[in-house]
Amino acid sequence: MTSSSASLFPRLAEEGGHAVPVIHQVPADGVFALLWVIIALPALGAAIILLGGGNRTKGFAHLLGCATVLGSFAISLVSFFALLGRDETDRSVGQFLWTWVDAGSFRADMALLYDPLSALFLLLITGVGSLIHLYSIGYMEHDERRARFFGYLNLFVAAMLMLVLSDNYLGVFLGWEGVGLASYLLIGFWQHKPSAAVAAKKAFVVNRVGDIGMALGTMLVFATFGTVAFAPVSEVAGEAPTATMTALGLLFLLAACGKSAQVPLQSWLLDAMEGPTPVSALIHAATMVTAGVYLVVRSNFIYDYTEVAQTAVVVVGTVTLLWGAIIGCAKDDIKKALAGSTMSQIGYMMLAAGLGPYGYAFAIFHLLTHGFFKANMFLGAGSVMHAMNDDVDMRHYGALQKAVPVTFLTFAMGYLAIIGFPGFSGFWSKDKIIEASFGESTLVGLCALVGAGITAFYMTRVMLMTFFGQKRWEEGVHPHESPKIMTVPLIVLAALSVLGGLLLFGDFVTDWLTPAVGAVAHHELAFAPWVFSLIVTVVVAVGVTIAWLTVGRNEVPRTAPQNVSFVTRAARADLYGDALNEELLMRPGDRFVTGLVGFDDKGVDGVVNGTGTAFAGMSGTFRKLQTGYVRSYALSVLSGAVLVVVALLAVNLT
Amino acid sequence: MTTLAVSPLLSESVGDFTKPSIEYFDLSPLLIIIGVALAGVIVEAFVPRRLRYVVQTLVAVVGTIAALVMTVFVALGLEPRGDNAGFGAIAAEGAIAVDGPTVFLWGTILVLTLISVFLFAERHLEGGVTAFAGQAAALPGTEAEREASTKGLEHTEVFPLMMFAVAGMLLFPASNDLITMFVALEILSLPLYLLCGLARRRRLLSQEAALKYFMLGAFSSGFFLYGIALVYGYAGSMNLGDIAEAVSGTIGADPLLLGGIGLLAVGLLFKVGAAPFHAWTPDVYQGAPTAVTAFMAACTKVAAFGALLRLFYVGFGAARWDWTPMIWVVAILTMATGCVLALTQSDIKRMLAYSSIAHAGFILTGFVGLNAVATPGTAELTSLQAVLFYLVTYGFMTIGAFAVVTVVRDSSGEATHLSRWSGLGKESPFVAGVFAFFLLGMAGIPLTSGFTGKWAVFTSAWQGGAWPLVVVAALLSAVAAFFYIRVIVLMYFSDPVGEGPTVVMPSVLTTIVIAVGFAATVALGVVPGPVLDLAAHAGQFVR
Fold first, then answer.
1. Which of A176, A306, A494, B421 has the most CB atoms lying inside 10 A of its own CB?
2. Pairwise CA distance, residues B275 & B360, whole Å
3. Average pLDDT score, chain A
4. Neighbour tally for A582: CB within 10 Å
């Protein structure tokens, strides 16, 4: 904590020492000339599978799908090492593809930017993506629309790569919409289930709200700077008025809230679990939902100049990390519990991103480790579901550690990582965020600390209900371990969950990201960092203990008890997020539309014909007049004409 | 002797008569289309009945292509003119302006017409006859109608009617004085009124639509004509250039001018289907034969927006600050009406009608953006360029979408009720996919032309300082996404009701239309550059 605790966010007052990085691109040569192939491969895979039709590609679609992503991964890996071999100043590689829109002064190129930030994202997307593709071969084996599934997955990967590789906001927007579309298609993949269709629609609609922020933000960037490319914007960002930067920051925050399921646009993520589990792992845990964090970190040259927007990001992140954690505590559906946890962990990343130079690098670090351990746990959950005949209710699980040993062990690695068990990847990344947020403000720090405790509680609860205790299986369920094609990715991801913390070894990840997000700034803290680590570990231990006392020692009832506290009820109802949406957004909208339609049908007609008739005959008259008569249309034209002329005269002659 | 005696008298009474000079080359596309229409009438009179369909279709197609080719030649021959970054010429004694925007709009209208002709000529879907009434004069439900139907009669007059409408559409955005503009308005409208009433199925609905369209169209023409009178009273001339001079020469607003602007705006806004003059749109779009709806929705809107742009930018450009607030209000009202009312529609054609109203609102947003007249010679995205581009994208998407509507049928003809569309994704994934793509395009999803078009008009509006309007437009386009998505959800995620819809395999004609619409929507979304450039090269209106 800093000495000046008068302001809630003391950092904001003392900003200035940190240099906002400016992007200098160097042309793509050598292996970097292949950058476009990274996107093109999965795009081609999607095109072949989806345009070729499910039946013709049935035989090879899954192999093609995996091969394209693995190919992209190979190029990403080579590029990464090539970038590693370069000087720090040469690590932003630009590749121009073609001019997308060129109209007068408005010009947007289809161009790629490969820098340390996108390099890490590429590895995450293609690496974890490859593992999940492989896993899906086994998971979707009995689905007759498996070819289409791989087509959509490839489409998603291509769009996500576009999102993180584009060198301008318009390209990001393209990828942004693309992943939204793929997510929509995959959530609704099992379209025979009405719940899946509804969930898909909900995700789409909520995301559109966020997309407005993205679209308006991009337009404002163009209106302010005359370009939408990152490099020129980062050069002149300091000269723009603060009010504009604040507006930009808030618009992009709105966009990020939609895509990353942050409060208040969080409601779609829980429903999105209707999609097949590999989708939940890839899109709704490891990659797409972190796009919001990417956007904020990538726009660091905007956020560094606006304290208001940064504060807003911190507030959103903090609220969401608690919101998601509380929801996670009450869910009996294993995937929904994990979804709540995803929300919460992304809240941590947003919080870190909002801390500016104190947190950008840690946000990305946590994003990576989270990508590993959350994908691991989702796939583990999928493996458990596979064993339990697609039952997702944890109250029907119990004592599975013997039945599915590999899944259990790998899940346990993910579990230890997410709660921040010392040495595991989550320990390093979450610890850093909590430490940095204490530097920001004690209140935010405490919230982050409490969040860590709650995380420990609900994850332990998931662990205990699934793998320990008594058997509460449905009749006729015979759990069995999943095939190799599913367990091997689990093992790889488990290893990454354990070892992901090595990225921080020798400050590798923070130094690596310096050219893209600036050097990490450090607070003067009241205690040494190891004291914080100790406090966090103690809080985590408390959370685990409470879970063991409440869940582990008692028998878990097979049906959820109904006489529970208000808090539990609220958490089960997603903290009334849906009810709130419905009451605030949907109902008034519905009423408004109904009213307007009523007005169009009845009001306009009624004025003409209804005034003369007695009130008694009114309803009958209305019914007869429901389809429009020319005379009423003519009246609306006439009144419109009067309106236009009167408006013109009134405006100009007064 | 007698001749000698008469001739001086004659020459004196005629005075200094000079033959009007007509620039036949510049006007050739227009003249060709009028010629084709007249030829169609002659064909109707002299060619035996069984050959008429083939001959009429050929005449229309060849004529349109010829006009299109001539448009290209005219475009290549345009000369720079004046100092306001425009090029082209004033033809026909000042009545017609053949300039960059004119030629661009001509090209757009003719291409859209060409594919509409294919829709008109489709015979496969109704079992060997066109979608138009067998005998329009026969009352619905009478013996005469059944007789016409069993004989397999069909009205091939629809082709010349269409060509007359196209002639009006070509003249409308090119007219350089108010009377020519009014005549063009009537030439394009009258055949359309008639075409709307010619549906083979649901004839009462169709005739009702035609009558409504006619009455309301006549009503709005009255406003337009009165507006002409007021403006003439103010400026003392019908010529747009003279009006512009009069407008820029006066200080302070004149009620005559303002009234004239308002009433002319009513007439034009009615044609583009802007609120509150939109009431006819859903009824007429629903009732008219779908081929006519497609043609009308695309081409009329292009022509009417062209005329609107010319009238307001050229004639009233100097009074821009007087009429901009009015257009703001109309734009917001139009977008809101279109987007909100589309939400509750249960008929696909009505929904598309409201969607076209919403699109009119988006185009109006671009229209009030950066004024093309006020900033000559700048390299910014002008509103003229943005609107021209949007019109192209909109035209192709609309015709494509309506073409898809014609192939989804049940026993009573086209299945336009939305509930009949549920489960179409299972019945025919291909047709449903194409339709979904058009809907996504209309919703403005990236990589479709709808996105680039919206982007263009919003950017130009934003640059022109109309950012509140852009914010409203962006919000409403999100609302609009709801009802487009609703249809996609219906097609893919709902189970068919009863028998379910069937997709009738159309002939190559409709297939071409759908394919062209689809290709244009993809191409203009991925590489919009060439067409945007073309719109930029169109330059400014000339006076």
1. A176
2. 9
3. 82
4. 14
What stretches of A442-547 show up as alpha helix (H) in DSSP? Answer: 442-467, 484-499, 508-517, 529-547
Strand pairing partners for A333?
Answer: A393
- Answer whether B230's CB lies under 8 Å from B259's CB: yes
Phi, psi of A113 (to 5 degrees): -125, 115
For residue B219, give the nearest of A98, A637, A639 by CB distance.
A637
Residue A47 and residue B522: Cα distance in Å, rounded?
A: 14
- Helix-, strand-, coil-residue percentages of chain B, each rounded to 5: 70, 5, 25
From the list A209, A593, A643, the residue facing B340 with the nearest CB is A593
The verdict on a CB contact (< 8 Å) between B216 and A637 is yes
Nearest residue of A to residue B483, measured between CA atoms: A205
The full set of domain ranges for chain A reads 182-572, 579-653
Q: Return the sign of the alpha-carbon dihedral for residues A414, A420, A422, A427.
A: positive
By residue range, what is the domain housing residue B173?
20-537
Pairs of residues, one from chain A and one from chain B, whose beta carbons lie less than 8 Å apart: 171
Cβ atoms of B264 and B224 closer than 8 Å: yes
CB contact set of A201 (below 8 Å; sequence gap of 6+): A188, B485, B489, B493
Nearest-neighbour CA in chain B from A282: distance (Å)? 23
Average pLDDT over residues B207-230: 93
Residue-wise pLDDT for B514-532, tens only, equals: 999 999 999 998 888 888 8
Q: Output the pLDDT for position B119.
A: 94
Could you give the CA distance from residue B506 to residue A178 in angstroms, rounded to a whole number?
Answer: 32
**Model pLDDT, residue B251:** 73
Alpha-carbon distances of A443 from A7, A249, A432, A525, A604, rounded to whole Å: 12, 23, 16, 15, 56
Q: Give the sign of the dihedral formed by CA B246, CA B249, CA B254, CA B258.
A: positive
Confirm whether pTM is higher than 0.80: no
Omega within 30 of 0 (cis) for the link into A264:
yes
Angle at A19 between CA A15 and CA A23, to 5 degrees: 140
Residue B13 located in a structural domain = no
* Overall number of domains in chain B: 1
Rounded to whole angstroms, the Cα distance separating B495 from B501 reads 11
At A25, which amino acid appears?
Q
Surface-to-core class of residue B491, CB atoms within 10 Å of its CB (0-12 exposed, 13-18 middle, 19+ buried): buried
Q: What are the angstrom distances between the C-alpha of B267 and each of A407, A465, B208, B221, B262? A: 72, 71, 22, 6, 9
Task: Calculate the CA A386 to chain-centre distance.
Answer: 26
Q: Does B9 reside within a domain?
A: no
CB contact under 8 A, A216 and B528: no
Does the residue B11 lie in any domain?
no
Residues B480, B362 contacting (CB under 8 angstroms)? no
Mean pLDDT to the nearest integer, A431-453: 89
How far is it, in rounded angstroms, from Cα B73 to Cα A307? Answer: 59
Closest CA–CA distance from residue A191 to any residue of chain B (Å): 5
Q: What are phi and psi of A2, to 5 degrees?
A: -85, 165
> Does B76 reside within a domain?
yes
Q: Do B489 and A201 touch (CB under 8 A)?
A: yes
